[in-house]
Amino acid sequence: MRIDRLSNAQISVRHTLVPIDGTAASLEAVELACQLSKKAKGTVYAVYVIEVARTMALDAELPPEAARGEEMLRRAEEVAEKVDYKVSGELLQARDAGHAIVDEAIERSVDAVILGVDYTTPLGELELDENALYVLTHAPCRVILWRAAIGEGAG
Predict the structure, then answer these.
(1) Measuring CA to CA, which residue among 141, 55, 57, 135 is closest to residue 93?
(2) Is CATH 3.40.50.620 the classification given to domain 13-111?
(3) Are 3 and 31 in contact (CB under 8 A)?
(4) pTM for the complete prediction?
């Protein structure tokens, strides 16, 4: 990946939110967020959202999901360390990841949400999941979409 080419761009993004899901694209989005925020001496917030079924209490303990989330946050921190930056990671539980991401963006007053998405083409056309579409439609800030290269996604 060649994100270092963006270092001379005239984009000012101080505080960013990056939802991570363990895909290579979401971790690349962490690197992009670090590069953009580092230039402005800002903050990168990485969040992993555990979607809780409506049949369960929202604060239900979900050890396997929480362990996976913690591992994804650890990987995001490793990505940030490689570019000499830090991320603030948080594990969230919500009914809907898209809503949680938008709420988090509002609560943290971020300048941008950077979404890393795989290149998926189940019916021959690029398809975004419902969470990405929700964030693109409802986030009050900039939304930067970092799509995996063709052949790198799951589809």
Answers:
(1) 57
(2) yes
(3) yes
(4) 0.88
